[in-house]
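target protein:
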Amino acid sequence: MITYQIISRTGSRPVNEDCTGMHQLGDSYGFFLADGLGGHGKGEVASKTAVEQAILQFEKGGCSKETLERIFEAGQEAILARQKADGVTQSMKTTLTALLIDGETIRWGHIGDSRIYYFQNNRLMGRTMDHSVPQMLVAAGEIKEKEIRHHPDRNRLLRVMGIEWDRPSYQLAEPVPRKGRQAFLMCSDGFWELVDEKEMVTALKRASTAEQWVEAMEQLVNRHGAGTNMDNYSAVAVWVNP
């Protein structure tokens, strides 16, 4: 059985440039989250375009690897076409995360610094690696993982949709089988910067539903972000039970 909870908040900003989406296709599910970049309403257009294309490709192809690839490639094509139509080339970009689940297999992919966390039996198994300057510095051994959240260059992204690619810039994870109790958290940087992994696990262990899990984490986000210029924040929590 699959249950889920989705939130998307404006924070302290005038416009919410995040976009989330879900689509069910028989016993298969697709979940999508994008964080638009660029301001002046263009980031909002980019994230919405990416999620709309993701749903369209999922409707066409279901939960295959090819569908996951097309989600990112079709989204990129649509955003570049919209940039040309609107006469903007620098201010319409977005991150994207995509999670596809059918009766046997779970697949996901991402581009940018919106994250997907994977939990098995209340244990954190891993997360997507940000396509950002701080993540690159972690890989080079120059800073520690925990320093990403407050690094001055944390918003400098190395890969996004809406910039010409020499080669595919998205990243696909190795698929995992549906097995036991699994949970996934998809979230924009406005969310994960204000709740750490230990807090995510603690909230997961205490929650009886995906909704309770998100509510507990959102309380932490608002508590940690109080008095600051909070970014838009969005989260998609998905529970996969036997």
Notes: The chain has one domain: 2-240.
